[in-house]
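Note to self: keep these together.
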Amino acid sequence: MFETIRAAQALTENLFADVVESDGSWTVNFPAVIAFLQRATDRAQPVLLFGTAFNFVHLLDYWIDHHLKVALPAGSRILETGGYKGRSRVISKPELHNLLTDRLAVPVSHIITEYGMSELSSQAYDGTIPQSRPGPFRFPPWARVQIISPETGQPLAQGQTGLIRVFDLANVWSVMAIQTEDLGMEHQSGFELIGRAEGVEPRGCSLMASDR
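Structure:
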């Protein structure tokens, strides 16, 4: 997905900031990230920074330990995706976004969260940029979310917590619906992601990332 964005925007400078370890896992290349962001700052070139939530926690912990800060140029954006999956300390989304603002000088209004998975062709986002505060997640019109009871499998009313089920018409030559083990709550304008159901195994392509 990110490679599609890079190619479509004809980006002349970009960085995949992970290092593949001997066991096949990934870890963040902290020096490379620092050097890349510093070059962008020196050139006053806005940055589009993508990452998983737990990789951002690793990056922030490294920056805090080394007393680092950088003021990314105006117009920079951050997109965070994925949960923590037991790979870092868990912090709330507001705390994560506030820490990113503190260390990178990107306002909270320019940080957005994605909800998606490899089994879906579409993604949901928690708002648009610029925005005053994060809102509920919304899929594009061709995808729909149901919040269902884990006991009965039947849809729940708005405001009740249940499992997230996604119907995605963009899943051509694939399954139309995905039953997740993520907990959510439906609202009038979208849905709220609460987290993983208790006792289920972590899922996601970002599990290849190492917690070292």
